Amino acid sequence: MFKGYGRVVAAAVIMSHFGFENDIHNVLRLDMPITNAPMARWQRKASTSSSSNTNSLSPNKSVNRSVSLSKTPSKTPGKNGKTQNTPSKAGGDRFIPTRNNKQLDVASFLISKENEPVEETASSTAPNQKAWSVTLNGYDIEEAKVLHLGGKPLNAPEGYQNNLKVLYSQVPTPVSIKKSRYISSVPERILDAPDIKNDFYLNLMDWGKQNLLAVGLANHVYLWDADAGDIVLLKKMEDDSEYICSVSWSKDGNFLAIGTSDCKVELWDIQYQKRLRSMDGHSARVSCLCWNDHVLSSGSRSGLIHQHDVRVADHHIFTFGGHTQEVCGLTWSPDGKYLASGGNDNMVNIWPMTTGSEYQAIHALNEHQGAVKALAWCPWQPNILASGGGTSDRHIRIWNANSGSCISALDTCSQVSSLVFAPNYKELVSGHGFAHDKVIIWKYPSLSKVAELEGHEDRVLNLALSPDGSTVASVAADETIRLWKSFEKDAVKKPKPTSSIIQQHIR
């Protein structure tokens, strides 16, 4: 009995275990329906499309649209015979409602009404809005135009800050206007200089501080008053075979030094038109002169440079003897520390201002390949020297007098006969002989060409700058002196053309 009962219990345990395993297996099967799972994507699309058929697109209109509820998209044949799955047009993902003008007008009206204060009336609101607009924006926003399409653009009110990025035309201010300097291509005045000696090595013109232009013509010295236009004969040599070699004004413009072909240096008082003294010492013609306060330097064809103290009877102080041929260029630095000399031996020597027993040049510059007559110190950089070479060289070179090094060099393709710095515009002016016969203005220190002043029919011999720095005078072998007013300050606009060039005769 107990054996039969045991078999029944064992069979029941086995059946219950089998049933439990069967339930576990059914639960773990993936193909059974999931009762609490989210709705499938195709079901959501179908339900959305069906509900859109019953909803109206606007408050007053309803639209009936047939929607395909097909779960399988339609098939279209591809290029290679294969089919491509294309969703139906009515069952797309995006919904774009129909818009019309009435809807836009209603929306605009609602937005404007929503921003208006309800309590204020239109009559009281308008003045307040205008006042606030003028205070905040600088103008009435109701009257402003964002874009002005007809005619010229509007000018912005004075002091207006463009907060709303309104397009206005900008009126240039005087500071923003780029000034373009006008340089006349014709001389302001032409003076006749008959019988001027066509000699490259002579220095026959100088412009003094009293606005007097001194010119040596053959054996005469003439003074031309640039203010009054008067011409005065200052000196005539007794021997007609002798001639004037050089002229140089003192710093104050009261005294004129004259070098002659008979080896003399004369000192003249301009106020009384009287010769004060005649200083001997040279053994050849005196080709160049230069002042340094009360010391007068004179260079000769002998290659020697004498220093004269014009205040004392024994005028000769000392002599520089560094050149082997004629000294044709002399100039003192603005601070009086150095004397630069150029010669026909192609050398540029820089001498110190000394009264000791050693009279040696601190720098002997030999880079020029032609005679060096053109010398000029920079007024705003006292240690900078410019030099120009003759026909065999044709170069303008810029030197540092402290170190003796050549800073820059420019090939002008023409004989350089004279140099002068124009401080009003920080420019360098050069006079040229063969083969251009013109005056050229260069920007310093770049040495880029600013202008070419043409008109001379023969080589330019000397240049001289007016006391105010506005005009440069050029004397040439064509027996004319031309005055170029090229350095006036604030010379922006082109002046009215004159009927004719003023021409005057010296002598």
Describe the structure.
This protein is an alpha+beta fold. It has helices spanning 2-28, 41-54, 101-115, 122-137, and strands at 74-77, 83-86, 189-192, 205-207, 212-217, 220-225, 231-236, 244-249, 255-260, 265-269, 274-279, 286-292, 295-300, 305-309, 316-320, 327-332, 338-343, 348-352, 363-365, 372-378, 381-389, 395-400, 405-411, 416-422, 427-432, 439-443, 448-453, 460-465, 472-476, 480-484, 502-505. The strands form eight sheets. A five-stranded mixed sheet has the order 28-29-30-3-31, with no helix packed on it. A four-stranded antiparallel sheet has the order 4-5-6-7, with no helix packed on it. A hairpin with a 2-residue loop joins strand 20 and strand 21 (381-389). The longest helix is centred in the N-terminal third of the chain and has 27 residues, at 2-28. It starts with a helix and ends with a strand.
